[in-house]
Each structure stands twice: as C-alpha cells, then as structure tokens.
Amino acid sequence: MTLFVESFPNSLFAHFCGLFLVCLLGLTLDRLLGEPRRFHPLAGFGTLAIALEQLLNTAPKNGRRSLTLGTIALCLLVLPLLFLTLWLSAVLNGLWLLLAQALALYFALSLRGLAEHGLAVAEPLQRGELDAAREQVSRIVSRQASALDEQGVAAAATESMLENGADAVFASLFWFLVGGLPGVIVHRAVNTLDAMWGYRNPRFLYFGRAAARLDDVMGWVPARLTALTYTLLGNRKLAWYCWRRQAPQWDSPNAGPVMAAGAGALNVQLGGPSPYAQGVKQRPYLGGTSLASASSIQAAIALVRHGTWLWLAVIFAINGLVAVVAEL
C-alpha cells in the first residue's frame, strides 16, 4: 500500500505528460499535413454509413421501425470501433500507444482544415467576389448559398467556424483527454453520423434520431467548455450575457451556447432568418451589433486557434501541478 501511494503521483504525472504530448503531436501533425486528400478514415466510414443507411432505411415513414433500424445501424458502425480501440489500448504501450493516439487525434480534429475552409470564403469576400464566396460557403453550410448576400455569406461562414471549432477541435481534444483512444474515435464516429443522418426531414427524422441524441449527449460538456473558452478569449462581458440570455432560444442544446458565446466574444451579429431549400428558417439573433464580414470569419478562426493554445496551456499547467504534488 505504501509503495502504491508513493508511486501514484509519479504515475499520474506520467499520464498527464502523455496526454499533453499526444495533444501537442496531434495538433502539430494537423498543422503540418492538414486534412488527408485521399484515404481519410472518415471518408471510408462515411461510405459504410451511406451503404448501411440505404440498406436499412427503407420505410422512413414507419416511425418505430425506422427508429429501431437507425439505432441498430448506429450500433453496427460504432461498437466495432469501440471494441477495436479498447483492444488497441490494451495491447499497445509506451511509444506505440502514444503514436496511435496522436494519429487518431490527428484524423479526428481539423483545425487547419477549418481555417482553410473559412479563409476560402473570407478572401473572395474581401475582393468583392460574392459569387466565388457563395460557392465556397456552400461547401461548409447547408443553406441556399445563392440567396445569401455578402453579410449572409459572412455570417454563415462565421457560424460554421464557431460551431465546427467545438465539434472538430475542442470536442476531439476533450474526448481524448477523458476517454483516450476509444473516446476520441467513438466521438468522431457519432458526430459524423449525426452530420449525415441528423436531419429533421421525412427520411431521417426517426432513422437518425439515435445518432443525433447520442451526439447531443457526447457534445454537452465539450460545447460548454468551448463556450467558456470563447468567453475567456473575447469580449467576456458580452459573451457571458449572450451565452446566458440568447443560447436557450436556440433549437440545438449544444450549438446554442457555442454560437451565442462565440458571437458575443466577437461582438458580431449572427443567427436571424436563413434561406434553405425548404424555405426561410426563422432563427433568433445571437451576439452583438456589428454586422458579419470577412473580418468576422478571420476573427472566428483566430478565436478557435487561440482556444487550442489555451487548452494546451491548461494541460501543461496541470502537468506542473501534479509534478509539484509528486515532490511533496
């Protein structure tokens, strides 16, 4: 028992050092390599998800049957990944485990890709090339881009940067920190299925419900940590006000806090009516009074980047605290 107590702080210190190194290495790989252009694991996973959905989702109007089959499809796609990553976590150790975790984190997060997609919209907007900006924004949002004016394009891209910063960056870091290799892989798989199946339309209303609800559960804590990150790094007073007062009006329990806090942190007006193929969707306004522009897209990218450095700093600080405790 005495040996365990004496070794516990050092083991904990080594654990947190490993977490910090994996996060740093994963973000470094993302910075150097960006998103893989070919053979991305998520692309293969998406292909399987499409095939399974087409096979099982044959009666979308039958609510109970469609919900059951959607849940089965979710389990068939996610549970093998969970078991595989649990097995890898058990058989790998030392440097091999660290490298496997870093690669998984690299494939799961997309900070550089997020910035590239955002700048692809901001740069033509700055040059006054609205059609080019519309084409680029149509690749990252589901809105009817042809109906968006300059401000609408900028607002859509800014919202995408803030929301995907939560899903593709901070949630991946969070689930690696709390769940290791299984955590980050399962979260990315569930989040991908929600993006593919989580639509409230006749085809996916029931079939995608299990994936959407599980994604809401897994995203609840990371979304609020993201909102806190945006608040600390921006206009804190306005961000806190928007988070508390405006977020509950949003229809998504996780996107609301993220986008409200982000809009307040940037003091930019987001939300409002938005055109979709099915018609104009009336959404509450979020944030401050400044109109969205190319600058707000760039500011949102910078906010996400600074947030990742803040998270790394916090992990590093925890390492230091554990090291101090180990010396006591």
Structural features:
single chain, 328 residues, mainly alpha, two-stranded antiparallel sheet, 4 strands, 75% helix, globular, disordered N terminus
Can you summarize this structure?
The chain is mainly alpha-helical.
Characterization of the model:
- By secondary structure, this protein is mainly α.
- It has one domain.
- The chain contains 11 helices and 4 strands; from the N terminus they run H-H-H-H-H-H-H-H-H-H-E-E-E-E-H.
- The strands form 2 sheets. The chain has a two-stranded antiparallel ribbon. Strands 2-3 form a two-stranded antiparallel sheet.
What's the total helix number?
Answer: 11
Give Rg in angstroms.
21 Å
The helix/strand series, from N terminus to C terminus, equals HHHHHHHHHHEEEEH
Number of strands: 4
Give the overall shape: globular
**Strand order, largest beta sheet:** 1-4
Instruction: Give the quaternary arrangement of the chains.
Output: single chain
Low-pLDDT runs of 5+ residues are: 1-8
**Helical percentage:** over 70%
Whole-number total of structural domains: 1
Strand content: under 5%
Biggest β-sheet: count, sense, barrel?
2 strands, antiparallel
Roughly how many Å apart are the termini?
18 Å
The structure class reads mainly alpha
Mean pLDDT: 92
